Automatic annotation (TrEMBL):
E.C. numbers: 2.1.1.181
Predominant location: cytoplasm
Keywords assigned: Cytoplasm, Methyltransferase, rRNA processing, S-adenosyl-L-methionine, Transferase
Organism: Iodobacter ciconiae
Function: Specifically methylates the adenine in position 1618 of 23S rRNA.
Name under which the protein is recorded: Ribosomal RNA large subunit methyltransferase F
Annotated catalysed reactions: adenosine(1618) in 23S rRNA + S-adenosyl-L-methionine = N(6)-methyladenosine(1618) in 23S rRNA + S-adenosyl-L-homocysteine + H(+)
Catalytic EC class: transferase
């Protein structure tokens, strides 16, 4: 019998620990609750049913336990359970961007302050950034229950202690106003904006995803309404105008805080949106704009980052705030 060679996901960041095939025996040792969901697929490989929300949540819990020593993690029913490999790529991609102002060295430790717009109940970006680099996060959301759960995750895990401050955004029309305080300085902001433009659009996306997974929900077999395998509340999945409107709003509202953030950033899932994003950034006078391609789950996405600081100002920022 020939030995299976390790599968390397070359589209993931070199420091992303999820580049290899899932090692299910090792993951089950780290999180025994995963075991009932693992079975051989049609190709004879161990896998889980990615159309099953419970299986996806169990896999996430095992990945967090095995790779990040996060043992206590859970979500309220129906909240977004994000695919971890793509989310980790965002963190490592931004680490590389910071390194460009620091003689190629990624800055580590609590001196690096990050603002997560829409932290969600899962708190995925603060968890990954805290464990990988020791960064300190502020997480904002318009959902009190989401913030409560994110806070509890950090409180229950020693490896995450003191890594997250939660701030409630009372006005959903504002992204930064009322959130960034006068004394705040952030190395970067990050955001995974709502992708869909309406609840109907989000439901259609769910059906397309389930169709690609080959489930009966997408084949008209009279099953109950489909449940997205990664879950998600309405504010996590859609907003009026969809991704493009949200990102353009974020761009226009970033300028008043141009001296308080080294970099602003956001995921842009739809490549067709990039020309409008660039136009919006030109209108507000962004000095530097970076488009950083990366993996996001099973598709290619990109981070668009912008700064109002010159390269010289960025290097002065780094020298004054980072030791390494």
């Amino acid at each position: 019998m020939s030995e299976k060679l390790p599968v390397i996901k070359n589209n993931l960041h070199p420091r992303n620990p999820h580049r290899g095939r899932y090692d299910f025996p090792a993951l089950i040792i780290s999180s025994p609750d995963l075991a009932p969901f693992v079975a051989l697929n049609a190709y004879g490989d161990e896998s889980v049913d990615f159309a099953d929300p419970a299986a996806v949540k169990a896999l996430n819990r095992a990945l967090l336990s095995h790779f990040y020593a996060i043992k206590e993690w859970g979500l309220p029913e129906g909240y977004l359970c994000p695919p971890i490999p793509g989310r980790a790529d965002y963190i490592h991609t931004m680490a590389d961007l910071l390194a460009t102002s620091n003689q190629g060295v990624v800055p580590r430790g609590a001196a690096v302050q990050v603002l997560d717009i829409g932290v969600g109940a899962n708190a995925i970006y603060p968890m990954l950034g805290k464990v990988a680099y020791g960064w300190q996060f502020v997480g904002s959301d318009t959902d009190d229950l989401a913030l409560d759960n994110a806070y509890e995750i950090f409180e229950r895990n020693e490896v995450l202690k003191d890594g997250l401050i939660c701030r409630y955004q009372a006005d959903a029309a504002n992204i930064f106003e009322g959130l960034i305080q006068p004394a705040d300085l952030f190395e970067f902001t990050l955001c995974n904006p709502p992708f869909h433009s309406s609840a109907a659009d989000a439901a259609g996306g769910t059906r397309r995803k389930l169709r690609s997974l080959g489930t009966g929900h997408a084949k008209g077999k009279g099953l109950p309404p489909p449940v997205l395998n990664f879950g998600g509340q309405s504010n996590e999945l859609w907003c009026e105008g969809g991704e493009m409107r949200f990102v353009r709003t974020m761009i226009s509202q970033s300028r008043p805080f141009k001296q308080q953030c080294l970099w602003f950033s956001t995921l842009v899932s739809k490549q067709d949106n990039l020309p409008l994003v660039y136009q919006a950034l030109e209108r507000i006078g962004a000095i530097q704009v970076k488009t950083l391609d990366m993996a996001q789950g099973n598709k290619i996405s990109r981070v668009v980052a912008w700064s109002f600081l010159t390269e010289a100002e960025q290097k002065r920022w780094a020298k004054s705030r980072w030791r390494s």
